[in-house]
Design goal:
CATH topology: Aspartate Aminotransferase, domain 1
CATH architecture: Alpha-Beta Complex
Radius of gyration: 17 Å
Oligomer: single chain
Distance between the termini: 44 Å
Strand content: 15-25%
CATH class: Alpha Beta
Length: about 160
């Protein structure tokens, strides 16, 4: 019988599987680990490079959609700041404040507008946090680019969320 571990103890098996790959194999290959739901694990960093690394690591169809979203955001707000924190790309207007975040799930991409309740019309999906609204993108969805760009422009004019 093996000794019990506490909730904060690290797993003993360093070869445990995450998203179909072991930590060891993924680290050796230099590939990002995909976390549960397929979200890429990318080192925290500021600027375009970590965001592009995240987008490149998005699995399957999501990478193409990620490139499109990034192009729409930077086209709508050319002086946008970018970062990856908590394994999610963030977009903002001032250092350390963000108006939008992207996160990958198994069946969709979630775009979070941190002050989305103030947008007109608000993005369609609500949140437990009263100010936050989400826009979910599934594999075969057609993105209303004009509406998305309008949300991005509106969101960029609002106070960012400090993170």
């Amino acid at each position: 019988m093996s000794p019990r571990r506490g909730a904060g103890d690290a797993p003993r098996d360093r070869n445990r599987v995450m998203a179909g790959k072991t930590f060891e194999k993924s680290a050796k290959a230099g590939e990002p680990v995909l976390l549960s739901g397929g979200n890429p694990q990318i080192a925290k960093g500021h600027g375009d490079a970590p965001v592009q690394a995240y987008i490149a690591a998005m699995p399957g169809w999501k990478s193409e959609v990620g490139r499109k979203l990034d192009a729409l955001i930077t086209g709508a707000v050319p002086d946008v700041l970018k970062a990856v924190k908590w394994n999610s790309p963030l977009y903002g207007m001032e250092e350390k404040t963000w108006f939008l975040g992207v996160h990958v799930f198994a069946k969709y991409i979630k775009v979070a507008f941190f002050r989305g309740a103030a947008l007109h019309p608000p993005p369609p999906v609500g949140s437990k946090q009263k100010d936050v609204r989400y826009f979910h993108i599934h594999e075969d969805d057609v993105i209303d680019e004009a509406q998305f760009i309008d949300w991005v422009k509106q969101a960029s004019q609002l106070p960012g969320e400090r993170m």
